[in-house]
Amino acid sequence: MKEGYEGFRYKYRLPIDHSFDGSIEKKHHHVIEISVEFSSMKGIQRVVRMRDIEDSISNILDTYRNQFINEFPEFNGDSTIENMGEVLFKRLYEYFDTTEWDLDRFEISETPLRVYAIVADNSVA
């Protein structure tokens, strides 16, 4: 754990539709759960309010709310939970890179027993 660590975890539920073969006839619905953990070093002057971060994360994820995921080009027709996780993590990481906060961990799950996690390497070399 970072010395002087302070972090937050936000959780979201995101209803989506997808099909494994890309066909609209075989689409089905999921409510996926997403967990976003981020942190900063204590004492850093943060100019981004927490509400702004929450709104920005919601805006990124809401792009896909109640949508047929297979139709988005960023998924390249691959609507597996792992690929969705990679795409969403990248979008969130790009956002956090513009703030004084570090995206530390991202989790996405379609059931409580199946969770795909990505841990960012925010260490300074």
CATH architecture heading: 2-Layer Sandwich
Give the biggest sheet. Answer: 4 strands, antiparallel
What's the mean pLDDT score? 88
How many helices does DSSP assign? 2
Strand count: 4
Largest sheet strand order: 1-2-3-4
- Kindly identify the CATH topology: Tetrahydropterin Synthase, Chain A
Q: Can you tell me the residue ranges where pLDDT is under 50 for at least 5 consecutive residues?
A: none
Identify the CATH homologous superfamily.
6-pyruvoyl tetrahydropterin synthase/QueD
Instruction: Give the radius of gyration.
Output: 16 Å
Q: Give the SSE order as H and E letters.
A: EEHHEE
**Share of residues in helices:** 10-25%
Task: Give descriptors for this structure.
alpha+beta; Tetrahydropterin Synthase, Chain A; 4-stranded antiparallel β-sheet
Summary?
The protein is α+β, with helices and mostly antiparallel strands. It is about 25% helix and about 35% strand. The radius of gyration is 16 Å and the shape is elongated.
Structure explained in plain terms:
The chain is α+β, with helices and mostly antiparallel strands and 125 residues long. It has one domain (5-119): 6-pyruvoyl tetrahydropterin synthase/QueD (Tetrahydropterin Synthase, Chain A, 2-Layer Sandwich). 23% of the residues lie in helices and 35% in strands. The protein is built from 2 helices and 4 strands, in the order ββααββ. It has a 4-stranded antiparallel β-sheet, with helices on one face. Strand 3 (102-111) and strand 4 form a beta hairpin. The longest helix has 16 residues, at 81-96. The protein is elongated, with a radius of gyration of 16 Å. The model has no long low-confidence stretch (mean pLDDT 88).
